[in-house]
Structure of DUF1515 domain-containing protein:
Amino acid sequence: MTVDDSAKSHWLTSQAANDQTRQRLAVGSGDGHPPGMDTELALLKQRADQADQRMARMEGTLDRMDDRLVRITEVLGSVATRNTVWAALGTGAAIAFAVVGVFIAILTYLQDQRIATRPEPAPAAAVAPMILQLPPWPTPPASPAAPQPATPPG
C-alpha cells in the first residue's frame, strides 16, 4: 500500500498553522486568547442579552397577536357573508312563493267544491208586466197676441 505524500504535506501544513495560532494566543493574557478579547467578549455577551430581551418581547407580541387573530377568525366565522345573505333571501323568497301557491291552490279547490255542491237555482217565475197609465201632458195656454211694432209717422 502506498501513501500519498500530498495529503501528508497538507496535514503537516495545517498542523504548523495551528501551532502558530496557539503560540500567538499564548503570548496574550496567558489564558489562551489575545489581549483585548475580554472587553470584546463582554460586549458580545451584552449584545446577546439585548437580543434575547428583544426576542422575548417579540414573542410576547406575537402571542398576543395570535390570540387576537383567533378571536377575529371566530367572529368572522359567525358573520354572514354576501353569499350567505343571498342564499337566505333566495330561500325566503322560495318559501314565500310556495306558501302563496299553496294558498291559491286551496282557495281554488274550495271554490270548485262550493260550485259543485251548490244546488241548481230554480227557474224564476214569470213576472207580470206593469203597465203605467199617465194622464196626457198638459198643453200650455195660448199666448196673447204679440203687440205690433209701431210704424213711424211719415
